[in-house]
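pasting for the record
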Amino acid sequence: MDQKATAFALLLLAAACAVAQAPETDIALSETVRTIHKPGAFGIALETTVYMPDGAGPFPVAVINHGKANGDPRFQARYRPAQAARYFLQRGYAVVAPMRQGFSKSGGSYISGGCNVESNGRVQAEDVKAVLDDVAAQPWADKGRMLVVGQSHGGWTTLAFGQQNYPGVRGLVNFAGGLRQEQCPNWKQALAGGAASYARDTRVPSIWFYGDNDSYFDPPTFHAMFDQYNAAGGQAQLVAYGRFGADSHSLFGSRAGTAIWQPELSHFLKAIGMPHEVQPAFAKYGGRASAPISPRTDFSPPNDETKVP
């Protein structure tokens, strides 16, 4: 092989490697992956997924915090809440989904706090603050209209973040938030106590979503968390929607779950003065316009995904 052919082959190999290493993104949702640097002695980099509507902004911002899968957090996949992103994009929001320290390709190590679940939430919330500090400095962000959302461990992180009363954050959204620590004594009571501790310093309202057949947090557990949160001064409303599919812990990520949480969230957003209706300029993010709409059959309730054939 002559030198030109060799050089060309090397260029092709380099291009193939670059494609292989590039993160998968959804062009239809203007999905990109950014690195946000958390300040500190070690300068930890946080892998962050961003969904951006068309235009220059400034856009209201929804930060969505991920849960914690079993196993080593470093092997957890990048969080891509595309379904929730569609909901917010249609309403003109920019959506930011960071991987916290020690998760996926973010730097540093996961700090568990042992059985101190209250401390765990506060440590996780520091990463959310670092992300919002970066986002609030961007020209496309409306730093006076921000929302923080979280699912499971991310919901617990969101409640802990509420203590910071971050400027511009108007509300918190908690989907099945908590951290199951069955190896710790009285871990369910610790969740309720931690929620009360967060509430004492939180001045922003929140909405909570929990189901009866949640494999992580049963009704007595989430009701105790909610009751103690409000008793300590929190401004929370609970959407206890009963059973959902095989495990209500999956509501937020399930297509069938949108019929339950989206109307409730829209009411909440309206109440706190945030955009809550689909805007014609952004309606395209709802999905393919050509997709046929199936006729109503009443075969099963919309919250029972086990009935879907």
